[in-house]
Amino acid sequence: MEQVNQGVRENVYPQAAQAFGRTLRQAVINAATPAAAVLVALACGAALLWLNGFDGSDVVTVMIFGSFQDMRSVGEILLKATPLILIGAGLCVAFRCSIWNIGAEGQLYAGAIAATLVGTNFDGLSVWVHAPLVMLAGALAGAAWAGIAGYLKVRFQASEIVTTIMLNYIALILTSYLVTGPMRDASAAYPQSARLIREAWTPRIVSDMRLHIGIIVAVVLAVALYIFLQRSSRGFSLRVVGLNPYAARYAGMQVARNVMIAMCISGAMAGLAGAFEVAGVTHRLYQNISPGYGFEGIAVALLAGNNPLAAIVSGGLFATLRSGSEVLQITSQVPQVLVLIIQGIVILSVVAFTRLRDIRRIVA
Amino acid sequence: MSQKPFLRVENIRKRFGPIVASDGVSLEIEQGEIHSLLGENGAGKSVLMSMICGMVRPDEGEIVFKGQSVRFNSPREAIRQRIGMVHQHFMLVPNLTVAENYILGQGSPLRVINDMDEVHAKIRELSDRYALDVRPDAIIEDLSVGEQQRVEILKVLFHGIDLLILDEPTAVLTPQETDRLLSLMGDLAKDGKTVVFISHKLDEVMRVSNRIGVMRDGRVVHTVNVGETNARELARMMVGRDVRMELPRSPEPPGHIVLSVDKLTCRAETGLPAVRGVSLYVRAGEIVGIAGVSGNGQTELSLALSGLLPVDSGRVILNGKDITGLDPARINASSFSHIPEDRHKHGIVASMSLSENTILQRYDQKPFASRGMLNRGVIGEHTRDLIKRFRIKSRDEDQPIGALSGGNQQKLVVARELARNPDFILVNQLARGIDIGAMEFVMEEMLKQRDNGRAILLISTELEELFAICDRILVMFHGEILGELPPDRTRLDELGLLMAGQTNQPALAS
Ligand SMILES: Nc1ncnc2c1ncn2[C@@H]1O[C@H](COP(=O)(O)OP(=O)(O)OP(=O)(O)O)[C@@H](O)[C@H]1O
Ligand SMILES: [Mg+2]
């Protein structure tokens, strides 16, 4: 009896264990490349700082750990991670479909404008209605802004790289126009919109910290997008279109529809990030509401290997570097350009390492 | 004292995870010979050759070339030692010219290219010497498959080699192009070059080789002189049993018309007319073949039927329903299966798993999906079933299909299309890259489908394939159907003339 059981278990268990082991090994292999790239980049950064007369290792340590001083500073990192995760995860979907959406920055601004419009109007709604409505408006506006580029691509074969960049400028200039003109708060000396109605604010997690529930939304959506890409029929067709559009056509997939969907998903995520910046952080629309989150999101997706789940980690990492650089600016004389250079090296080494790995795979 | 062989491979082992691709393989090749390699799909031919030319590194074993032990880290190092290979699928950059492709990756990336004229001259000289017909300024993507093949061969010659490895070069060639390639191989051997030739076509192998090696399960199990063997024996050595070249078929008369095509015309992507008023029908329970030299509109005909190319005029009726110009999704849904000519372009997504490739058309249909989500259990089970039934050599269903040997990829495409239970099956090149054992199996499957009342249209440049399973053979020339013949080998001459476009030939002795 005992022996029979043993036999059964031996037959079933190793198979499952093998499959699990393989998944685990694959995950480690996949994570190894970006991790190595980040380490190399930080080492390069330290060397660079040293050449400029700073104590490189110290500065890098500050950059990584300097911002982890207390709960509040961790909260600030997560606050910065929110838009990066949202945008990065959304761009993973677009990139998987081979849509090169460079316009997350503009889509973020479109979302911020819509969120401001909804958040400064409709007085009298409860927070349960108004706050979500603001988020929805941001997401829809971002999707629509990206949808313009998507439509131009499927209808006229216009390169989305060009159109999304153009739309970035349009969104930025539109925002400047609005906060200096029609939406300007006349009582303020500075160009800015009126303050959002309290009920429209994104609720905070802890009342005395700026961190709001956007981080939870970002993580949940990143997980959802991962499941969407890997497990859903639509996600499957997006991936096929991205990998081999000829096979997609042969299989009867609507390439244009998939392109539009991928574009709009990434736009919606960026628009939502814009809504959170307005409704969760500044509570007003400014000309420079984003310090380039839309562009940094591209790097987040790249470092994540276009995997929305990994975008949570890489978004967190870029937010940490960003916070660290702010700490540095206050505590030492390291100019911010050097910090930007280090971020650039991170991106370059990720690209280089990934290429190297792919070449290795072929030669194997 | 026996002379040292030109190339000696000793006890090489290579594993990909749990898959043993080379299992202590040894091989000797003499200078100036044409040495053919045969073997079932996945026997390890391509992997062995990739190790000789520096694409893949062996785990164990030794390669001795011209008396020296060599160990290449890249194909460039192999080329420096004068070993070059033309791979099963081409490795040319499509939007560059021939000459640009040749100098790609040569020398320092920072050097200034100013000797293009010299490169062009050298290409022209080689092209003339071996009658290859390659223009140095032609853009790759404008060339036919046969032309690209010659470009690949000339590329290797351009770099100067003593050992040329050709991995299934004839799989995509027309009979005429094949004849040309085989005579080129003869010329190269006369110039003292050594050629390794991989093919699944026994008649070609018998025609050109000096010696033939047969591989099985990652080892060379036999090496024979061409004069001491015959096709039948080779087949037996490869598969381990007798392979039937003639398949029995039931004499059931065909049923109702499933597909009818009426005066179909369409243009190629270049805008030139490609199909000029083709009319044909296929009945339930019959296999209709379309013979022809490739480039006579067969590609466009199959693309137009499956909705991948716009139709200019004419009608296509499937099961009484007009499907002319519908999009592929609607056509797929009308019980239409298509085994495409260009597997890498249309048939598979190379980096996706076998499982994902088996649901390419049915990714949103029950039982593979419900409520918008994929049912991974069902998909995996279905794929495992196909792998078992079609004997597809793979690690498991989660392996990327690109890691499979060429023939095994084709088997999965065939398996997928038949599993969809279609009323009509459009096949453009059934056995591309499939070994003779698997070919017999795939043909039997086709005949089974026929006997189950399916209608099959088989476009092929392989006359053997057509004679083996077709009930009627149509001949296509310059975008038109010139005539119809029964699959009767005694009328081969007539078929040949039709394929060359001669309709009103004087009556042959009857
Ligand atoms: N990169 C790879 N990763 C994993 N397995 C591989 C890889 N390349 C080859 N294999 C496996 O090694 C075995 C031998 O493959 P190979 O391509 O040499 O076969 P072949 O004899 O050329 O077959 P065919 O006639 O179908 O081309 C196959 O089982 C294949 O799946
Ligand atoms: Mg092969």
Automatic annotation (TrEMBL), chain A:
How would you describe this protein's topology in the membrane? Multi-pass membrane protein
Mainly resides where? membrane
Q: Would I find Cell membrane among this entry's keywords? A: yes
* Pfam families (alphabetical): BPD_transp_2
Q: Transmembrane segments in this chain: where?
A: 27-51, 77-96, 134-154, 161-179, 211-229, 259-276, 337-356
* UniProt subcellular location: Cell membrane
Q: Which UniProt keywords apply?
A: Cell membrane, Membrane, Sugar transport, Transmembrane, Transmembrane helix, Transport
Q: Which InterPro entries match?
A: ABC_transp_permease
Q: Which GO terms describe its cellular component?
A: plasma membrane
Return the PANTHER family for the record: ABC TRANSPORTER, PERMEASE PROTEIN, GUANOSINE ABC TRANSPORTER PERMEASE PROTEIN NUPP
Descriptive protein name: Simple sugar transport system permease protein
Q: Lineage from the top down?
A: Bacteria, Pseudomonadati, Pseudomonadota, Alphaproteobacteria, Hyphomicrobiales
Automatic annotation (TrEMBL), chain B:
SUPFAM superfamilies reported in the protein's UniProt record: P-loop containing nucleoside triphosphate hydrolases (SSF52540)
**Which key words tag this protein in UniProt?**
ATP-binding, Nucleotide-binding, Sugar transport, Transport
Q: Per its UniProt record, what InterPro entries does this chain match?
A: AAA+_ATPase, ABC_carbohydrate_import_ATPase, ABC_transporter-like_ATP-bd, ABC_transporter-like_CS, P-loop_NTPase
The signal peptide stretch is none
**Where in the numbering of this chain does the ABC transporter domain appear?**
7-242, 259-503
| Domain of life, per lineage | Bacteria
The entry lists its GO molecular-function terms as:
ATP binding
Q: Return any one Pfam family short name.
A: ABC_tran
User: Family, per the entry?
Assistant: Belongs to the ABC transporter superfamily.
Q: What is this protein called?
A: Simple sugar transport system ATP-binding protein
Q: State the organism of origin.
A: Aminobacter ciceronei
